[in-house]
Amino acid sequence: MHHPDTLVVNTGRDSERFGGLVNTPVFRGSTILVPSFDAWEECKRDGNPYAHYGRFGTETTRAFESAIAELEGGYASLVFPSGLSACTHAVMAFVAAGDHILITDNVYGPTRMFADRVLTRMGVEVEYFNPIKVEDLTSKLRKNTSVVFVESPGSLTFEISDIRALSNAAHSVGAKVLLDNTWATPLYFKPFDHGVDISIQAATKYIVGHSDALLGTATANEGAWEQLQASAHDFGETAGPDDIFLGLRGIRSLSVRLQRHWENGLALAQCLQTHPAVAQVHHPALVNDPSHDLWKRDFRGASGLFSLQLKSTDMERVRCFFNSLKHFGIGLSWGGYESLVLPIGKPSRTVKSWERSGYLVRVHAGLENLNDLQSDVIQALDQVVAKISVTVA
Question: Is 289 part of the annotated catalytic residue set?
Answer without folding.
Answer: no
